[in-house]
Amino acid sequence: MESETGELTVDSLKEAGNNAMKEEKFKEAALHYTEAIKFAPKNPILYSNRSVAHLMLKHYYLAICDAKQSIELNPSWPKGYFRKGQVELATHQYTDACESFREALKRSPQDPIIYRALSNSEQELLRQQKLDKDVPWVGAGVGIIIGAAYVLSKMFYKNSFQHPLFMCFTTIFIAMVGRFIAKTIRVYMKNQEKKLLEPPDNLLNCEENEKAEEQQKKKTPRYTKSQARMRYKKGKA
């Protein structure tokens, strides 16, 4: 009877979460799925659904944790890999997203949604790889323009003649600086995107506080009723 009641509770909470998702009340949906998980902690569907809710809220770390948990609970289910790929795609981790979608497609080869997601991820990956090659040279091109403008301004506006080799060296040097800056910015942006999947600081602080509270509870001595009466009598005495 208890299991049947629990199952009904899970279904009703799951349905409430699904309805909230349809109404784009993503925070409310995540709360409903969380309550359902308390009744059915080994249900991969609930983690998958909550992963979507977290993704819509841009809680990327929580979203990918739920996707991974869904995979762990049912490795043969394609939806867990698909959810993981969605989070990775949203955080611009295109290589990982392609791998996740491929894993999903292995388990559901005829699914057009997974196939389309994989195709889009592969196209975006190729575009990003091209940008990785092109952006530094764009920076170098900008550097050449700036370097040439600087050399010409020295020649025509300040009437100062300089050796041609020095002028070439100056232009090349500024071009290389431009290339380095462009490449550095590109690497920085990619590193920032990777951090989207890291746990936020406030979450880490909450976990540390919970651990501290648990340790404090363990340190606090617990007494039986008889021991408590004895301590009470000693206190009165």
Automatic annotation (TrEMBL):
Q: Which PROSITE patterns match?
A: TPR
Compositional bias (Basic residues) spans?
218-237
**Keywords linked to the UniProt accession:** Cytoplasm, Membrane, Repeat, TPR repeat, Transmembrane, Transmembrane helix
On whether Transmembrane is a keyword of this UniProt record, the answer is yes
Membrane-spanning intervals of the chain? 135-152, 164-182
Taxonomic superkingdom = Eukaryota
List the subcellular locations: Cytoplasm
InterPro entries membership: TPR-like_helical_dom_sf, TPR_rpt
Region: Disordered; residue ranges are 209-237
Q: Where are the TPR repeats?
A: 10-43, 78-111
GO cellular component terms, semicolon-separated: cytoplasm
Q: Cross-referenced PANTHER family, in alphabetical order?
A: HEAT SHOCK PROTEIN STI1-LIKE PROTEIN (PTHR22904:SF532), TPR REPEAT CONTAINING PROTEIN (PTHR22904)
Q: What is this protein called?
A: Uncharacterized protein
